[in-house]
Specification:
- This protein has 205 residues and is an all-alpha fold.
- The protein contains ten helices and no strands.
- The chain has two domains: 53 residues, Arc Repressor Mutant, subunit A (Orthogonal Bundle); 126 residues, Tetracycline Repressor, domain 2.
- The protein starts with 19 loop residues before the first helix and ends with a helix.
Length: 205
């Protein structure tokens, strides 16, 4: 993650070497790990090194902070969607996508789940701009899975009907994996992930 120190005119309560890009990344990680409601103002201040007035002057309201964090999160998960949208290996591209989920379950973010899915369970998702971002992510997930499944069909790896019935099944499974990880049951999340891999293998002829 690259960042460019913000050396513009300072205001009281803002560190002299304040790095807005890094601060936004830290806020994104905080909201991703703790959840929108659970993340406190004190934690946001500690994450950014800002005073209360400077935090909201820099990033806006808490809902504004979540919106900016979602934009940052969607940029981070680009790498996760790459094998679905731009791969050329059929079923192997879908397996590569699942590898990203497994990598998260093996990382300190194992209980973070998905920031988008977490947000969708919260009333804050009723904010128009926030909902537009969460819907954008969900639509991209479905399109990406469908695109990769169609490549697998074209390669003769899956039956012609696969994109119709497997895209939503895998999408539901992905959300389930992330929900179980969020709940702290990593072992069950891994079992569900292995089930998705098997589902793709069983349909591979």
């Amino acid at each position: 993650m690259s960042s460019t120190p913000d050396t513009d005119a300072r205001r009281p309560g803002r560190p002299a070497q304040f790095d807005r890009d890094q601060a936004l990344s830290d806020l994104c990680l905080l909201l991703w790990n703790k959840g929108y409601d659970a993340a406190t103002q004190e934690e946001m201040l500690a994450a950014t090194g800002l005073s209360s007035s400077s935090l909201y002057r820099t990033f806006g309201t808490k809902a504004d902070i979540l919106e900016a964090a979602l934009v940052r999160y969607l940029a981070w998960v680009d790498v996760m969607f790459t094998p679905l949208e731009h791969g050329d290996r059929g079923v192997a591209d879908l397996q590569a996508f699942l590898d990203h989920l497994r990598a998260q379950l093996d990382s300190p973010l194992r209980t973070a789940g998905c920031l988008v899915w977490n947000t969708m369970q919260n009333p804050v998702n009723g904010h128009a701009r926030i909902k537009a971002l969460t819907e954008q992510h969900m639509d991209r997930l479905r399109r990406g899975l469908t695109t990769a499944l169609q490549r697998a069909v074209d390669a003769g790896e899956l039956p012609p009907s696969a994109p119709t019935y497997l895209a939503d099944a895998v999408r539901a499974g992905v959300l389930g994996v992330q929900a179980r990880g969020r709940a702290g049951d990593t072992a069950d999340a891994i079992r569900m992930l292995d089930g998705l891999r098997t589902l793709l293998t069983l349909n591979d002829h």
